[in-house]
Every structure is written in structure tokens, then in C-alpha cells.
Write a structure and sequence with these properties.
- The protein is α+β, with helices and mostly antiparallel strands.
- The protein is built from ten helices and 14 strands.
- The chain is extended.
- It starts with a helix and ends with a helix.
Length: 411
């Protein structure tokens, strides 16, 4: 739609990866132009300052990168300097203008694709109306080989299309996360069942097992006292070679990434990943993970010729939700190991699955019952009680708050 509305020579969708480098994931061009689809670009091609401005101004148009700038004169009576960061008339940085000309892109129109940041619960001072933080997912980029001006109504329509696209991206990501979280929760529940049935080795040998918790190519429970991570409760890396493991090259492609957590003084749980077997096409400059913006050394790239990098000694990165699942299992296993090593200790906490508690003795039954009642009454979710016939005969405080009716008045 943007391609047809604006008439630009090239329109592409540019996605930012977790390490901030970008990739062209979709593209449409007029005949005769070299395609950029599938090319990766280093994070420094779009500096953090530019990304910050895209979060404030969702649309940026440059009609002619070769046009001369027009100076803006400030009234001498003003006691402070004006900033044009929020103005569409702001002149682009000379480095970016040269960058465009080197790409043979004389005019451009760029629209930000902003979505909710799923890693943050809220960033509002008003606790009653928390607002989700936003993040720059990517850009819709239009290039033209000749000067081009797009009037405001058309730019506004394109901005609306970019917002609709952002909503779709956000919904797709939320749906994907919900499916992943549901599968993780289901697997965790089954693993807990195995532990409660005194079958700890089943989490490795049976189906499902810990390999189903997160995507990996192998996992094992071992007793290992490491020299370099003795005090660590866990570590993760997508490259054992980069992490300094001396035997990384000897392991070959089979083991490149690893996530490990300590579950007892001697026991560790490991997940291993093989190499990605990925070929990445870079658009003239490779992204270096440690490379940062340096305003004093900003200079435009002169080469955009694609070259191929074969990724070796590196696995797929460990995502945040995968590490959350691993750490949750770590806590479950720690508690399970404590119960196995000290069976004489009385249960002092109620596990998530109350129906799996093993109750020994009438006194312990009373204590657990009292604790169950307390948990139900203080729960932040509504809980109903039913009799043997399935009729409601009670509910907790949360339902009373939602309905405005205490259980005594309603029944």
C-alpha cells in the first residue's frame, strides 16, 4: 500500500534484532534496482540518537539529500537555545545525507514501527493506570533515486498504515509469547508431577523431559565442580568459544551454546545447543556486538556491496522467556533436592500444586489446611468452592471485592 500510495522507487521493512543490528525482512522495488531483501546492517548505521528521535517523531521525510540547508535564526531575546528535534523541518545530519547519496537514495520517507515492550510491566508514576513501555521494533523505509516530496495528507495516511502494521506485529508477538508460555507451563507441570512421584531421573529420560522446556540439542544432569564458576548459580552463552571455554573448538559444531544452573552443591543442569548453521548477508559492513555509537567519529559508509559471513562456533541466542523457564525449573529442582536430602524436615511452604502435597499425620494435616485457607482467602484471583454436587457454597475475598457481596449474603 505504501509503495502504491507514495510512488517511491523502493519500500522495505527494516527489523531491529535483539543486538540492535537491522535486517531487511520485506521489500518491493521498481524494476532495475538492486534488491536489499535479506541484507543485515550494523547497529551503528542507525545510531541510538536517531532511534530516540523516531520514538518521538514517527515520520521523517527528506526530499532531497543534495539540497542546501536553510538557516533558522533565533531571536536574541530568548534566554535559551531552541531545539528542532520535534520539527519535521529539522535538517538531517550531514553524515546521514552523505550516507543516502552513497546509497544512490536522493529522497527518503521513514516511518517508525513502535510496539509494546513485552519485557517491562509498566513505566508510569500512576500506579492505578500503568502504561506499557514502548520500543522501536523496526522501520518502514521508502527510498527514491530522484528528489521527491510527499504532501502532509499522504504522509499522514502512510503513518496510519505504519501504526496498523505495528498493531498487527504486536498482536502476533503477544500470541506467540502466549503459546510459548502455555507450552512451558504445561511442561513444567508435568516435570513437577515426575518429581512429586519420586522420579527425578524421569525429567531427563521420560517424555516430556527438560529438552522440551526450551529449544536445545542436548541436556544432561552431571556433578561438576568448575574452577571458574564455583560461586555462580548459573550461566548462559551462545558461544562457548567466546566465553573462554578451552575445549570449545574440540567440541565442534555439536556444542556451541550452553545454559547451566546449579541445583545443589555438586549438581548442575545443562542445556546445549549446536551451531546455527546460518549464512548472514551483510550490507557492506559487519555488525560487531561490542561496537557503540561514537559521535566524534561519525562518518558515512561508502560501500553497500553485500558480502557473506558464515556463522561458526555460535548457537541461537537464549531468549528471556527461555531463561525464565530455566530459572523456574532450577527453583523447583532445588526444593525437590532439599526434600530428598532431608525427608525428616516438615513441610513449611505450600507448593504450587496443593493437591500433590504428601501429608503425614493429623497435626500436619491441620497445619496444611489452615495454610490452604489462608492462601485461598488472600489470593489475587477469584476462587469458588463447590460441594459434591457441583453447587457453589463459598468463595474467597477476591470474588467478594469484585461482586460487592460477601458469601454469607449471597448464599
Amino acid at each position: 500500500e505504501v509503495f502504491e500510495l507514495t510512488g517511491y522507487d523502493r519500500v522495505m521493512t527494516y527489523k531491529f534484532h535483539e543486538d540492535d543490528h537491522g535486517e531487511v525482512i520485506s521489500e518491493i522495488t521498481k524494476p532495475g534496482l538492486e534488491p536489499y531483501l535479506g541484507l543485515h546492517y550494523p547497529a551503528t548505521d542507525i545510531p541510538q540518537a536517531a532511534r530516540f528521535l523516531f520514538m518521538k517523531n514517527k515520520v521523517r521525510m527528506i526530499c532531497d539529500c543534495r539540497a542546501k540547508h536553510v538557516k533558522v535564526l533565533q531571536d536574541e531575546k530568548l534566554s535559551f537555545d531552541l531545539t528542532l528535534c520535534g520539527s519535521t523541518l529539522r535538517a538531517p545530519h550531514s553524515c546521514h545525507l552523505q550516507y543516502m547519496e552513497n546509497m544512490n537514495s536522493i529522497a527518503s520517507l521513514v516511518m517508525a514501527v513502535v510496539i509494546n515492550d513485552g519485557d517491562d510491566e509498566g513505566d508510569s508514576s500512576d500506579s492505578t493506570q500503568p502504561q506499557k513501555r514502548k520500543r522501536l521494533w523496526g522501520l518502514v523505509v521508502c527510498h527514491n533515486t530522484t528528489p521527491r516530496f510527499v504532501p502532509f495528507p499522504l504522509r499522514y495516511a502512510c503513518e496510519f498504515l505504519a501504526q496498523v502494521f505495528a498493531i498487527h506485529v504486536n498482536k502476533e508477538l503477544e500470541l506467540e509469547n502466549q503459546i510459548v508460555e502455555k507450552n512451558i507451563l504445561k511442561t513444567q507441570t508435568l516435570l513437577c508431577d515426575m518429581l512429586m512421584r519420586d522420579a527425578p531421573l524421569g525429567i531427563v529420560s521420560q517424555n516430556p523431559n527438560i529438552m522440551d522446556l526450551v529449544k536445545c540439542d542436548g541436556a544432561a544432569i552431571v556433578s561438576w565442580l568448575t574452577e571458574y564458576h564455583m560461586d555462580s548459580t548459573g550461566l548462559s552463552t551462545d558461544s562457548l568459544y567466546d566465553a573462554g571455554f578451552p575445549g570449545a573448538l574440540a567440541l565442534g559444531d555439536a556444542v556451541c551454546g550452553m545454559a547451566a544452573v546449579r541445583i545443589s552443591d555438586k549438581d548442575w543442569l545443562f542445556w546445549f545447543r549446536s551451531h546455527t548453521a546460518a549464512d548472514i548477508r551483510w550490507g557492506g559492513a559487519k555488525h560487531e556486538p561490542g561496537e557503540k555509537d561514537d559521535g566524534r567519529k561519525m562518518h558515512p559508509r561508502s560501500s553497500f556491496k553485500a558480502f557473506l559471513e558464515v556463522v561458526k562456533t555460535r548457537s541461537l541466542p537464549w531468549k528471556d522467556y527461555e531463561m525464565d523457564a530455566i530459572h523456574s525449573l532450577q527453583l523447583i529442582l532445588r526444593n525437590s533436592f532439599k526434600e530428598v536430602e532431608a525427608p525428616e524436615c516438615e513441610t513449611k511452604t505450600i507448593h504450587t500444586k496443593l493437591n500433590d502435597l504428601r501429608i503425614d499425620g493429623f497435626q500436619e494435616l491441620e497445619a496444611v489446611t489452615a495454610e490452604m485457607v489462608r492462601l485461598i482467602e488472600t489470593a489475587l484471583v477469584p476462587i469458588l468452592a463447590v460441594d459434591v454436587d457441583g453447587l457453589v457454597n463459598g468463595w474467597n475475598t477476591k470474588i467478594a471485592e469484585l461482586t460487592g457481596l460477601p458469601v454469607d449474603e449471597a448464599i
